[in-house]
Give the backbone structure.
Amino acid sequence: MVMSSEDSSSSYPDEPELELGLGLSLGGGKAKARPPPPEKAAGAGSWDQYARILTAKDFPSMVSSTKASSSSSSSSSSPVAKANNSNGSCGTKRTAEPSSPPGRSALSQVVGWPPIRAYRMNSLVNHAKSPATEESASTIDKTKGTNLVLDKTNYSSNRNHNVAKERGFVKTSLFVKVNMDGITIGRKVDLSAHSCYESLAHTLDHMFKLSAAVGATRSKVEEEVVMGGKRQPPRLLDSSSDFVLTYEDKEGDWMLVGDVPWEMFLSSVRRLRIRRTAEVNGLSLMKGTGNS
Amino acid sequence: MDPDPKKSKVLTSNLPNSNGSSHPHSPFPDEVLEKVLSLIDSHKDRNSVSLVCKDWYNAERWTRSNLFIGNCYSVSPEIVARRFTKIKSVTLKGKPRFSDFNMLPRDWGANVHSWMVTFAKAYPFLEELRLKRMRVSDQSMELLAKSFPHFRALSLSSCDGFTDDGLKAITTHCGNLTELDIQDSVTADIGGGWLSCFPENFSSLEILNFSSLSSEVSFEALERLVSRCRSLRVLKVNDIITLDQLQRLLVHAPLLTELGTGSFLQELTPRQYEDIESAFGNCKNLRVLSGLWDATSFYIPVLYGACSGLTFLNMSDTVLQSGELAKLLAHCPNLRRLWVTDSVGDKGLEAVGSSCPLLEELRVFPADPYDLDHRHGVTELGFLAVSRGCRKLRYVLYFCRRMTNAAVVTIVQNCPDFTHFRLCIMNPRQPDYLTNEPMDEAFGAVAKTCTKLQRLSVSGLLTDTTFEYIGKYAKNLETLSVAFAGSSDRGMQCVLEGCPKLRKLEIRDCPFGNAALLSGLKKYEMMRSLWMSACNLTMKGCRLLAREMPRLNVEVIKDEGSDEIQADKVYVYRSVAGPRQDAPPIVLTL
């Protein structure tokens, strides 16, 4: 699969969120060919090696190779990101012209405008009604020419993407709903707070083990500290575990988490579900083509 | 209440011929003075009282029990503790308002800890603490929980920095707690264990609001808490709580006056539907209703039975359609305050106009802030419709995508009593969409017609003319927010010269430069604060201001990639405490 050269104009101020959308819509063996999202960095590496069937056992190596590839792509794109950051950080130099590119792009790049409290923004995106699946496909087409980030512009998609730019730093939260078989009340997890599957799985492990008992006792900060040290591989990634972590992608298909590079996962995940292994066997999860 | 003129007249008339008494000061014994002064609650009045003379200053400081500090950096904890000795209740506000919109670095400051340490020593009888836009660490919460045996009320509005551990300290140790009110907190999932830490014999809670904390709490613990706190009158839960759980809570607490529901996203059986409907029907005292996440037309009717006494309906977390709103409003004849999202459209606002004759406050938030499509949301028509039906309107916050001068002129003619007029035309610098002219006449009409105007937020394409109008007419204006407006320094100058009661001025992305900044030299000491970002200020201008006015703190934050000369974000405020010591490296104090 050939990577398209970037068709986005670089006169546009930086959209660091684009880094999340950098993954090619390859892998997972989907038959439908889709136009790849615009990329800032050409030649971010080929993803071909990831188009194979994966099982949970592959995880430890998968995670590290994902990290390697993601770091290579992010390192190639970050200089671009940094260079453009000064333009994007706030409305200093830019005037948001009403005649700016159509749609939401102009408005969403001005920091702190419209003046809506961060709390309310979070609330809006996290409770927006979810439409049917068509939104994502059309968003991709829209983004081709306008350099917009997938789904950021569509508050009503299930994938809640809240952009809050702080000085020079872009703080994006990517909250997705997580449900678990047998538990009526779901949780939400901020995927942007994680950089790899392992860290995500640990958080979910923690979240759902304690959901029956009362209240998480560890703060997020402590969680990070724990992450840094050596620990057991999370149960969710353990093939012998009772549970399997799956996600629904943009097309409404349920996939095994871990099939694709982390960044590609971020760009396509809509929500997560922790399933009991017994039920998974009956499900036709999409698997990678090619190698088995 | 203003006793001062009368008293000071007595004072001055007694001085020359003092009835034979050689006492040059107050004719009243101190005890009487203190007794009288202890009846004065308003902190503004108290500040005036303290300026009369030294005796009054002392009498006032010994009798003040409520402390209000609008800018935590305007004074230091030590100064406060020295002056006031009997404080029972403190209100502290920290970061400038634009921090709500992520315009400040995370570690900007406003950490409450140094205050907490001082209060722990100076005010062991502290009962209430209300914080807004401050950073509150777990450590501070633990100190709070352990230092004040009479502590009753904690209110945190737009605060961050704490986790489950801090809240646990509060719920575990504050045995007399009557109020725990956490609003608009922007914390991630911090954990919900705190709710389970109220002791089993704890029953004093009257106000509990955790609607903005997204963590899951133990419903069993919540239910037990609600059932044993017989004085509970305000309960606002988060969206983890489901409808049928809510029903069980309402059965325990039918006398609630304020309710924030959980999520409506649930499939109810007919029996459950009936149960929740009747539970709401039993809530005869409900005045305030909020939450209502994911409410749909099928489930909203369960609320109807509770609406007859409602004065404040906050539907801003729900995406409602016009028909749904209209039907609901038909059951709310006593509404004074209404918050909605613009999904209700102009049609929904017409329903507001016709159903809510007593309405005093309307806030319309955008359901999709980044959508520039004019077909969505509300327009000038909706606002007009409301103004025709709701003549008592005094507070409006209106986000829209198009507006006309003519509409605003008519609106303020219909509703001249506005005290708070905050209009946000979401696309910056957008002109009157019919005439293509600037929106100067609109805000001119507001300034001229609404003589009681205290707070104004302007938007749309605006020239200096708008500010001329404001300076000329808005004599009661205290807070002004300006964005993407003005043509030259003159605009800002008009405001600084013309608005005698101005206290807070916040400006972003306007062509105001050093001349404008410096024209307000004398004024800033009479204001709480000035914020200017993305304007034409330079470091030189800011340094000059700092040099000329030593009792002002001038803080500058430079954006990444900005050059030596520019002062990107400037925050100026008066202070008797000198420059602050806790500014992060990014904040330059001049």
Remarks:
- Helices of chain A lie at 59-88, 105-108, 118-127, 134-146, 197-209, 220-228, 262-268, 277-282.
